[in-house]
Amino acid sequence: MLWTQPELLRDVAPHSGRTRLAPGPVGAITDRVLVQSTMQHVGDVLPVIDRHRSGLILARGRSGEERTREYISRLRSDGFGAPIIYDSESYRHHTATADEPFRLHGEDTLLSLNLTASLDAQLLMGSDIAFTPTGVIEAGDTDTLKAATAQVAELDRKDTVFILPVDPSLLGIPYIDQVEAILQQAGHPIGIVLCQQLDPLEYTTRALIRNMRRLCRTVPYLGFFRTDLNALDMIAHGALACSIGTSGSTRHMVPASERVRFRVPGDSPSLLFPDLSSWQRGDTIAKRFGRRTAPRCYCAVCDGRTLASYLDRTDHGDARAHSVLTWQRWLVAIQRQPNLGDRATYWKAHCKNAIANHAILAAQLEQVRPFAPQVSLAAWASLDAWESMASI
Ligand SMILES: [Zn+2]
Question: Mind giving me the DSSP string for 20-48?
């Protein structure tokens, strides 16, 4: 199913344009940044999810499918009025190969041996749309990418997002032209999941961000799932839809061998530090501010509480809800811009402000080790807000 001729694909989201509504049921998530959560954490954030601009991606985590199905059914009968999507997280259990790009076998009875049946099973579970159960496509494996794309292109349905869990190097400079050409053949909305943390080297992060922005413009109906604030950068540059996780493990898909990076000792939760536009641990904020009063937040959850007071295990739920409320506020500001070019300009200014706040805080706190801006934030603040297609 191809809905656009290749020659019309250049710059589907021009500077002066708006995000295009995806056809069929996937249209319901157009221009939304959804909350990605496991069952374990969803109760913390459910009351603060913006029904008009967000929604829920329920990651399988350790919950069984039956329990998840019942939960989705309860959410619907309670009147949860935003999209709900079930994510089987196949990419956590399967490495894609050209012969087996999808995980079509598993311990759950709902998973079957056929791609169509697997997608139908997700809809039967109550999911508004289906995610292909794609395995992780490893570095350099364009053959598997082609094989997966060819199978998706043969599907005749408008309720499915082609989930593409990829090693980020596939979106790097050596591969981007080929990957873009392959994805333009999918004929279905695409949701990329980066299966590694962004490279800590700034020059590779900058190249990756430029290429991700490029894909949002040259491949119709493409978004990024299981991200952090990258979702806001993408939604400012024409992505179909994105999601932000409620925890470190749902904000990033990190291969099992690297998961140790998230194991920081202590009970203090991470939360969005609004002035710095970054996630920080409550105890780190407390340590950096010492006897000075840390910034207070007046969102509906914090109600004047200082960011340094998020220290215990019992604070995790509120930290998650505060973080969702904070990025949803930024999402509203981005979406109030009249077109994509203005969104991109607004987001760049937001990030420049956050970078400036790092320097102001460092001076105020006379810190030997100040808060360091994240590499991706520095890139969003310094890259051209909207590059011409000729330059990317
Ligand atoms: Zn707050």
Answer: PPPSGGGGGGTTEEEEEEEHHHHHHHGGG
Rounded Cα distance between 101 and 180, Å, is 18
Distance between CA atoms of residues 241 and 52, nearest Å: 13
| Domain-located, residue 118 | yes
Q: What is the pLDDT of residue 375?
A: 92
Angstrom distance (rounded) from CA 118 to CA 108: 11
What is the distance in A from the centroid of ligand 1 to the CA of 316?
12
Ligand 1 centre to CA of 272 (Å) is 8
pTM: 0.94
Residue 7 falls within a domain, yes or no? no
Give the Å distance between the CA of 297 and the centre of ligand 1.
5
Pairing of strands 32-38, 241-245: parallel
Which residues of the chain have a pLDDT value below 70? 1-12, 106-113, 197-203, 254-265
- Tell me the CA–centroid distance for residue 356 and ligand 1, in Å: 21
Asked whether 236 and 334 are in contact (CB, 8 A), the reply is yes
Q: Measured in angstroms, how far is the CA atom of residue 295 from the centroid of ligand 1? A: 10
CA 275 – CA 282 distance, rounded (Å):
14
Q: Total domain count for the chain?
A: 2
Do 244 and 293 share a domain, yes or no? Answer: no
Q: Are 213 and 182 in contact (CB under 8 A)?
A: no
Angle among Cα 343, 337, 44 to the nearest 5 degrees reads 80
Q: What is the pLDDT of residue 6?
A: 47
Q: Which two tokens stand for residue 375?
A: 């590499």
- Is 229 found in the same domain as 125? yes
CA separation for the pair 358, 349 (Å, rounded)? 14
- Residues 269, 255 share a domain: no
8 A C-beta contact, residue 180 and residue 215: yes
In this structure, the answer to whether residues 144 and 236 fall within a common structural domain is yes
